[in-house]
Design brief:
11 helices
Length: 270
């Protein structure tokens, strides 16, 4: 399946996933409302800090952030199973979302942790190299920076299908990593340009919608404007989140059988 076909399928999955989109929209909008209330009540927050103490207040913020993060992991696992069913069978349900959220939770959590840790190690390594190269010719620093950027992009592409492999084929964490790398190696450029388009298309559509919101903000001010912005942002995030998941799930399911070939590998890949 080609790049455009995968993305079209992703949009099709989003239009068939109204229940899921409503759930994601609701979650995102509630989080936006909480953020708006917190931003607009600085005096209240200051009083709470004085009442509870700085340590207790920071602990509450950390616990709230941790709760949101862990909830997002649960939702990611559920979303992947939901879109898998829609891609394969044309439909799914929130019951499947809930079931998969629990079933794949630890695997998706571990995958996100390992991917995040890997990217963090690359950035730390780059920072150390830049310190060593301090005072070196600018051209050398530029070349090293470009090599680092390429390394990060290749790593992201190779690891991007890991959660899809874990959920679609019910694989363990390390088997999912190996499968993701194999599929990406066989279809590197397809996967790269699919991801690139999934960044550009939502960006353009968001720009158009946010321009409209900007005109509305000229009419509405203060909290109402922030609520309208949060509403539209939550709606766009829900829709394009499903589009992205549907596209990559479609890509994975269509290309997993070709992971043994290396005809579409990046330059220098054996």
């Amino acid at each position: 399946m080609g790049i455009i076909e995968s993305i079209k399928k992703g949009f099709g999955v989003a239009t068939k996933s109204r229940q899921l989109m409503l759930l994601l929209f609701g979650f995102g909008f509630i989080c936006n409302l909480v953020n708006v209330l917190l931003r607009n009540n600085v005096v209240l927050l200051t009083n709470q800090v004085q009442t509870l103490g700085v340590g207790a207040f920071i602990a509450i913020i950390v616990l709230y952030s941790l709760f949101i993060l862990l909830t997002i992991i649960f939702m990611e696992a559920g979303i992947l199973a939901y879109v898998r069913d829609v891609v394969k069978d044309g439909q799914s349900s929130l019951a499947r979302f809930k079931e998969a959220g629990f079933k794949f939770y630890l695997r998706v959590l571990a995958i996100n942790f390992i991917v995040g840790l890997s990217i963090m190690v690359l950035f730390i390594l780059a920072e150390l190299i830049m310190k060593v190269l301090a005072g070196a010719p600018n051209i050398l620093i530029l070349v090293v920076a470009m090599i680092f950027v390429v390394a990060v992009i290749v790593a992201v592409v190779f690891l991007s299908l890991t959660p899809y492999a874990a959920v679609a084929d019910d694989l363990g964490v390390f088997d999912a990593f190996k499968t993701s790398i194999a599929v990406a190696k066989a279809s590197f450029w397809k996967l790269f340009f699919t991801g690139l388009l999934l960044i550009l298309v939502p960006f353009i559509l968001r720009f158009i919608v946010e321009s409209v919101i900007g005109h509305l903000s000229a009419i509405l001010t203060g909290t109402p404007a922030q609520i309208v912005t949060g509403f539209m942002s939550s709606l766009l995030n829900a829709f394009f989140g499903i589009v992205g998941s549907g596209t990559f799930m479609t890509f994975y399911l269509a290309n997993q059988g070709s992971s043994g070939s290396a005809g579409d590998s990046p330059p220098g890949t054996p």
